[in-house]
Amino acid sequence: MQLKNHEYILIQLNLYIVLSTLEINIIFYIYLFSVTFTYFWVISSKVQSDLSLLQWNHPLQACHTQDILPSMLSSYPRLFLYNWGTKLHLGKYVSGVIV
């Protein structure tokens, strides 16, 4: 079976479409990863700077931050904050991750 000229052109066109689609997908996923990484890096550095301003050395010293902490947590929804043994305004001890 021999291919005609227009069939060669169609095969080349199909290969070109498949390869260009694959290239666009790769570029899109690289862009999506970089934007997501940058977003979480900026937000986490902001959270760390906010937490360092509070200077929690002991759970009982967090009492004066009861008004600051809920507003700070509400500004970062579903973000991981690491506050080991810090007493929150809810009266619960956090040993790990707040989601």
Automatic annotation (TrEMBL):
The organism's superkingdom is given as Eukaryota
Q: Which UniProt keywords apply?
A: Membrane, Transmembrane, Transmembrane helix
Question: Carries keyword Membrane?
Answer: yes
Where, by residue number, does the polypeptide cross the bilayer?
15-42
Q: What is this protein called?
A: Uncharacterized protein
Species this chain originates from: Potamilus streckersoni
